[in-house]
Amino acid sequence: MxxxxxxxxxxxxxDPHKRAQETRRRVLEMAVFMKQEGGDGAARPxxxxxxxxxxxxxxxxxxxxxxxxxxxxxxxxxxxxxVWLRTLETLMHMTGKGRVNDNLLxxxxxxxxxxxxxxxxxxxxxxxPSITVRFREALRETDLGPASEIAPLAxxxxxxxxxxxxxxxxxxxxxxxxxxxxxxxxxxxxxxxGSGLSRDDGAVEIVRELRLETATPRAPALS
Length: 223
Known about the structure:
60% of the residues lie in helices and 0% in strands. By secondary structure, the protein is an all-alpha fold. It is globular. The two termini are 23 Å apart.
């Protein structure tokens, strides 16, 4: 059936539950990949014998072995990453609605919270350079690298730019990277040196500094 002129066609969005399940499956694949060729030994620094891979040797682990720290990190990632990616992907539902900056604020808040949790878990898990290398390889194998975060955010910004609600000078992918970098930076400062801003205030600052909205945005094209 041909759509009537002037009537916007419904946009098909991916099912959030299915996408979350797919992300969890990929994290599990990542865990399997990291355990290949070494089992627990893959999570043990090369210069530490198997019998000495304990929290006593690494006080940062607070009683956990390096292998256990990696397990805990992957378990957290399996729980948090699908929720974080779903937050980014559902932005497309907001295209043409409300204000762009207001739509991005919950994303920035969620990003700060996500990065704070993940960094805290990653610190004891990646004491060994070999584990870091394995993790990078696992990210590539499962397509869960930075692009999985940047792409949905850039897609949303491009859609809003097409509606005239974002400045034509804005480069969607670059702005997406900057927003995510701002969230990561806030989480880093909060964890290591203490941030002077609350997470809510930090999110407002991150979004505002992107300067995305046009001076006089057009009326929303969608109801």
